Amino acid sequence: MRFLSTRAHGALDYILAIILIGLPYMAGTADRSFGQWIPILLGVGIIVYSLLTRYELAIVRLIPMPVHLILDAGGGILLIVSPWLFGFADRSWVPFVLIGLFEIVTVLVTRTNTAPLHRDATAGRP
């Protein structure tokens, strides 16, 4: 059931990106390892592809929403497995798993069609 609008998803994207950029400092993995760089790079990546997605909160609308959701799902999966894949699970793994799951659930409940981004000036004319 897809009930989350693309506008709401866009707002969550930017909030999540900021959280990811700060995550290493909150989770105790800010030691120049993968535990630091994975969430920071994912956060910056989310900002970049969100600014380029065909939805209401973008600047340049190039990336289709289904592609955006695939990128989100991939980032969520990477977050979930990264503590074990990159060897920092002994220091922190819970926030990575929770944020990754949140990202995947958000993908599953987001509509893939955007609201009209502009009105046709001739619509409704005879």
Residues in β-strands, percent = under 5%
Report the helical percentage: 55-70%
Please state the CA-atom Rg, rounded to the nearest Å: 17 Å
Count of alpha and pi helical runs: 4
First-residue to last-residue Cα separation: 38 Å
**Care to count the β-strands?**
0
Q: Low-confidence parts, pLDDT < 50 over ≥5 residues? A: 120-125
Mean pLDDT: 91
Main pleated-sheet profile: none
Shape: elongated
H/E element sequence: HHHH
Q: What structural class do helix, strand and pairing data support?
A: mainly alpha
Structure description:
It is a single chain. With 126 residues, this protein is mainly alpha-helical. The protein has four helices and no strands. Helix 3 runs antiparallel to helix 4. The longest helix has 22 residues. It is elongated. The N and C termini lie far apart (38 Å).
